[in-house]
Amino acid sequence: MWIDWIAAITPILILLLVMVRFHWGASRAGPLGWFAAIGIAFLRFGFDLEILAWAQAKAFYLALDVLLIVWGAFFLYRVVAEAGGIRLLRDSLAKLSTDPCMQGLLIAWAFASFLQGVGGFGVPVAVAAPLLVGLGFSPLTAVVAPSIGHAWAVTFGSLASSFQALIAASGVEASLLAPMCALFLAVAGFGCGVAVTAVIGGWTGIRRMAIPIFVMGTAMGGAQYIVVTSGFWNLGGLSAGLAGMFSGLLLVRYFKGSAAEEQASSAPYGISAYLPYVILIVITLALQFVPVLSERFSVIAFRGSFPRLETARGYVTLAEDGKNIILLRHAGMILFYTAALAYAYYAMRGILKVRALRAIAGETLRNVLPSSLGVASMVSMAVVMANSGMTQALAEGLAALAGGFFPAVAVWIGALGAFITGSNTNSNVIFALLQRSTAEILALPTAVILAAQTSGAALGSIVSPTKIVVGASTTGMRGHEGEVLRALLRSMLVLILFLSLVVLLVVYL
Amino acid sequence: MTRLDEEQCGLFSPLQWRHVLALLLILVPSVMLGVACTGKENSLICIGLVAAGMLLALMDE
Fold this sequence. Notes:
The complex is a heterodimer of chains A (509) and B (61).
Chain A: H1 2-21, H2 26-44, H3 49-82, H4 85-94, H5 100-118, H6 123-134, H7 139-149, H8 161-170, H9 174-208, H10 210-229, H11 236-251, H12 275-289, H13 291-296, E1 301-302, E2 305-306, E3 309-310, E4 316-317, E5 320-321, E6 325-326, H14 331-348, H15 356-388, H16 390-402, H17 406-421, H18 424-441, H19 446-460, H20 465-474, H21 481-508
Antiparallel strand pairs in A: 1-6, 2-5, 3-4
Chain B: H1 14-35, H2 40-58
């Protein structure tokens, strides 16, 4: 058994080695992991060409489901950013208070969470860190605070692409997963708020900001819980970010600092900067609740159908239908519709030039290419591992090792996956099935363990190498990434330990 | 008005073109495997193409 376990964990260790030790990106490390998984699957687990072919076909459907959202989310973000919307939001928040802790909560926690809700992919750190430097924060604090602050919002951010990956890879329904995920992430959200304040103002800051942390944390976690448990999980991160900013804006008058000035925003576009997010919510609700639209937009749908597969060693994967992808109603397509309508509006108002579309599309393509390769290759690797019995072997080994403490270990596995692959989404793709199998072996509640997986992965993404590089490069800390990593590791480890204890309490109390 | 100017609207860099090719080599044969490739030879060709895409991505600098 242990030889199988060591063989099964080897592709993951290879990923870890090349990404951490040799600083490879996911787009390069993923293919190496795929080759390693295939080699080991053939040599040790009785894999054959037919199973590999079906595994790759399954991987396509899983990857497409996630990639549509990744592409759409970044495209929408670029349209809004080009129109000055992100700058408007940023400037408005910066002028509200001179108290560094309150500024930190507004920008590094609430605003960064909002950016994660609408964009993700390192955007919260890239936008918030230079702003904090501009407000007088040290470059190290400016990178560290938003890196921690937005982490809790990662799973339901980016139109919930990580949650989508969790559903797709685990095969568990969204309605079962959403409540526990929202609960753990809300708890993690409070932790992130406390950690941001601790980084900026230490213990004194935490005591002084106890009320804003409680109110904003409750607003964000509560809004996310209500939205995702109502079935609109792709709007969870966005709603949480909006709730955080509104509650923060209501509170800021009591925490203005010494000499905050009331200033009008310099951006000339006013409320139109917020329009894309209103459009997004309206389209999502319309396609959900208006039967005529829902029917019309369901005409293009495809679903893979896969046969029963059995390896030479007798590991069986049952026949299954893949996820039904309804293309025109897919969350990724909704993002594209929103971006197109927002662009048309901005062009009519003269805010964006017509030729800007080409630049926005080019920038989007350039930015999503490496992450798309990372998703495609890592999804392929994960499916090979699942269909060859490697994931099962890993799960059995982990169950034997962790025993009753597995609920806590599940959080660390999620975090490890995010650290290895640089994303919550990829961690879910790689480990969701493993976590589910282990939970079933140990007779633990599957939804709780999968929620622990994605919550741990969200917190683990704090130390995602790509985010650290982005943050360091936008604050003049290029070459000092190790310093940033050390600072982030401390906060991340405390947060994950805290979440592990919460998961244990939920399972055993 | 916009941050991006005309110069940035151009073609991909050689590295990005390799990324495009690698992604196509991974995704297109994968969908073929799901809908059309039933024989051993076809499967082998499709898997070979996917492996070529993975190799191309792996060779990035």
